[in-house]
Amino acid sequence: MKTFKLPDLGEGLQEAEIVEWHVSAGETVKADQLIVSVETAKAIVEIPSPCDGVIGKCHGGEGDILHVGETLVTFEGGEDDAGTVVGRLDAGGAAGSSDTFFVGAAPSSLEHQAPKASPAVRQLARRLDVDLAQLSGSGPEGLITRQDVEAAAEQSLAKFGGERLRGVRRTMAKNMARAHAEVVPVVIVEDADLHQWGEARDPMIRLAQAIGVACQAEPLLNSWFDGKGPSLKEHAHVDLGIAVDTPDGLFVPVLRNITARSGDELREGLGNLRAAVKARSIPPHELLGATITLSNFGTLFGRYANPVVVPPQVCIIGAGGIRQEPVAVNGKVEVHPILPLSLTFDHRAVTGGEAARFLKALILALQAPEA
């Protein structure tokens, strides 16, 4: 039998959820023929057949999550093709080896023996927070298999209640947990007075341009370039992540090189990214490498926020809803359109002074008359 295992999908992606099978057992396929669609943390990925052959078995059903190196398809006939395997991960179906040598006397060495499980199964148990010591293996000589670990995880989930997070929401949860563990967040807020704008306002494009100006005026994000490259002021290349809320979860497509593009080019690029996100056709590389992120949550509701910084970025801008508010002008009261802004920054990488100067530069650029 020849096996085709879930390949490395790039960008550090370690797992994928099966969305739809395009073939079935007994079907003859050609090399490069589409066999399955999977959803990663980034987008929908179409996986082709690596060779001509007859499908013996499709492993996993729609909604199942497979990890890189797990068997995806078995072809009838032939020998196992190591060329299609990305990392030889033992799924735990065969007997594994373990070190049973112990230092020090004990009433019984059985008390010190580690549970029998392959490295891949141990890794899965850590990921699913399953204690192998509490399991009885169903494999040969008590070997704990992948199925044993997954069953224990399902039982734990059933006791807790709720539904398993999948796809984009699963990734979002992981990113939020990572941010909570790694970032020291500080928030500062201020308002931008937009009374010098025209009646027809396009805040997203003006915000993108103002962020680009502020990044050049105050090299806030130098640490993003790992200290080896030039400062942002000299670099002048800023890739802006745009937080897009969808029913499936939060996507952050990246608008490239905002400092070198005109307003019309930014508008077109933003429209293309939003359309690709809506169609779930955006390629993974368009969701990576942002210098800074903009969350325009005000289009939904709210004035100020505490946006979450996701490493390796060191700050994020949140824009609230534009309001008509009274302001004092030369001793008189006027009503102006006011845009509330929130800046969260990682205090490990950015000082309070740098953050304040950055926000000031952003607001000054934003309050300038429209060109």
From TrEMBL:
Signal peptide: none annotated. Belongs to the 2-oxoacid dehydrogenase family. Transmembrane segments: none annotated. It comes from Atopomonas hussainii. CDD domains: lipoyl_domain. It holds the Pfam family 2-oxoacid_dh. GO terms for cellular component: cytoplasm. Forms a 24-polypeptide structural core with octahedral symmetry. The keyword Acyltransferase applies. Keywords: Acyltransferase, Lipoyl, Pyruvate, Transferase. The lineage of its organism: Bacteria, Pseudomonadati, Pseudomonadota, Gammaproteobacteria, Pseudomonadales. Residues 1-76 form the Lipoyl-binding domain. Its cofactor is (R)-lipoate. This is Dihydrolipoamide acetyltransferase component of pyruvate dehydrogenase complex. Residues 116-153 form the Peripheral subunit-binding (PSBD) domain. SUPFAM superfamilies: CoA-dependent acyltransferases, Peripheral subunit-binding domain of 2-oxo acid dehydrogenase complex, Single hybrid motif. GO terms for molecular function: acetyltransferase activity; lipoic acid binding. InterPro entries: 2-oxoA_DH_lipoyl-BS (IPR003016), 2-oxoacid_DH_actylTfrase (IPR001078), 2-oxoacid_DH_E2_comp (IPR050743), Biotin_lipoyl (IPR000089), CAT-like_dom_sf (IPR023213), E3-bd_dom_sf (IPR036625), PSBD (IPR004167), Single_hybrid_motif (IPR011053). Its EC number is 2.3.1.-.
